[in-house]
Amino acid sequence: MKAIVCEAYGPIDGLACREVPDPAPGAGEIVVEAEAIGVNYPDGLLVQGLYQAKPDLPFTPGMEAAGRVAAIGAGVTRFAAGDRVVLSLSHGAYAEKVVAAQSAAVALPDGVSFDTACALVCAYGTAHHALKQRARLAPGETLLVLGAAGSTGIAAIEIGKIMGARVVAVASSNEKRALAKAKGADEAIGYDDLRETINRLTDDRGVDVAFDPVGGDAFETVARAMAWNGRLLVVGFASGTIPKLAVNLALVKGFSCVGVFWGAFTRREPEAFAANMAELMGWAADGRVEPEITERARLEDAAEVLKRMHARKTLGKIVLVP
Length: 322
Prior knowledge:
By secondary structure, the chain is an alpha/beta fold. Helix content is 32%, strand content 25%. The radius of gyration is 19 Å and the shape is globular. The mean pLDDT is 94. Pfam families: ADH_N, ADH_zinc_N. This is NADPH:quinone oxidoreductase family protein.
């Protein structure tokens, strides 16, 4: 079978498409024949050695794959051959067939496509956990979403609206702001004059929750525009710069800086993760969330797709198709 392999930590260009042996399931494992594979920003960090984890080399990147169960190992009770599932992994998904523990699989309801399922894992899973468990977003609060046209930003917009928030989306171009509005944002603004615009839109009160997968200069700007008892969510650093917090701002403005590490959440709180995924799958089946699948690329083009994503030249969710 074909798989994308990282043979040495370094530039994304170093990824190679290789012929590798088909995986066989061990005890408690399943093999899934992938129909769609999600592409996520952390995949590119992982292969560059810039992520929190460093798998042993060589390895296959990829955090999510959806398809049908092709084989099951001894002791598997939750799934049978032919079942539709989506996998949530730390790595290993960029392949035609993916082996995983049955505990890493979530059954797909009728009506939820393989493409949609991939978006619901990392992007929507991160936004959901951030807004539900970490921010405890309440109806009527103002939610600011940075990087609003990316897959995680779009997820935060849709989930924020479901939770009853007023959503202000921040994106870098007219095209991206139009997409944010189409996905439900009440306001869509740019990064220029960000603090002044936030103050105007909130009558100088500030935002209750800020969802920041971007980092960089925007983080400090948002820190100065938080409301009393606000929650500034640290989700990621798509800008390439990890910002520093002037803690006096948290003191005088009375807001909290809250870390969001979805991968650790899935491992440390599996029951809460399972409940979150069930809720997301229900929303998707009911049409309350509709991930924006903007591109279906070949598995062989994984490196090119990741490079564009890291250059912030992509919109919505991209999936690879074996």
